[in-house]
Fold this sequence. Notes:
Low-confidence stretches: none
Number of domains: 2
Amino acid sequence: MRGVVFTGEKDLEIMTFPDPTPGPGEVVLEMKASGMCGSDLHQYRRPKGVARNATGLPANPDPVIAGHEPCGVVVAVGSGVPEGQAKIGDRMMCHHYQGCTQCGHCRSGWQQLCQEVPVKVYGSNSHGGHAKYLKVPANTMVPLHEALSFSAGAAISCGSGTAYGALRRMNISGRDTIAIYGQGPVGLAATQFAKAMGARVIALDISPQRLERAKEFGADEVINPGSNDPVAAIKDLTHGKYADLALDTSSNPEARANAIKSTKVWGTMCFVGEGGHVDIDVSPMLLRRQMTIVGSWTFSNIIQAECAQFCVDRNVDVDKLFTHTWTLDQAEEAYKLFDKQADGKGVFLI
Length: 350
């Protein structure tokens, strides 16, 4: 089979790999959709010769197939896999992490938090979904509801699931006003979910095109920080109280600081964007406002399944996120466009 490999400095190759065969406890998925996620760009942009993994997890020196939003159909099952876990023909998403499987984090569905063994991240330090097939442990499988497309399942497998998980951690409700900094794929998904949860959404981005999309996704108000003071604008829109909640998906230091500043006294602010930094003046920004700061890294396999069911129950049109569909042969063109971070979400249909 052929798979997309990031080789560094915005280069990639389509390499040939053996078709996988499942071992004990493993399954092989035939990919139907493999999403493009903003965190892929850390791998895509890395200098040549630098470890592929940009998140502090162990790297793999061998060529690794990219793509950590895999969704497809089970076509082979290894020995020892319970029928209730996966069988041939099942439509499945993949929770794209593997830890020791036995510690408290792994048993509760948070394998990415495992402290016992080096964590595998499919599409980063282990083969991912930008290929015809993907071999993974059966315990990473999350069923895909018949009402959802494979593309929707791919989005829920990271970008949309990350947005849902962050909102869930902040205990968002219909009484809340939330400011969402960044309206890329994760931010737009957060806008979409927050509206479905009944909240008032203030969407922020420096791209007029992305702000227009945020309106289409239900944002009640939009702010361009490039032409407005976002903190002052949010203060005005909330009658001087500021937002109940703020979510930063941008990883931009200034946006992160503004997200904290635009959150009300006793409010909650959450970081989900990977990488980067922020400077915080602790006393005035946090202590004297009784602020809660949350870091939210993706989601558990249980929350992934919950997100998918939420989309079905609330008629959330996850496919609306996608502005581009690609074949694997178009990978170079796809990532060159995605690297500009000006359009919406892309997906490889395989």
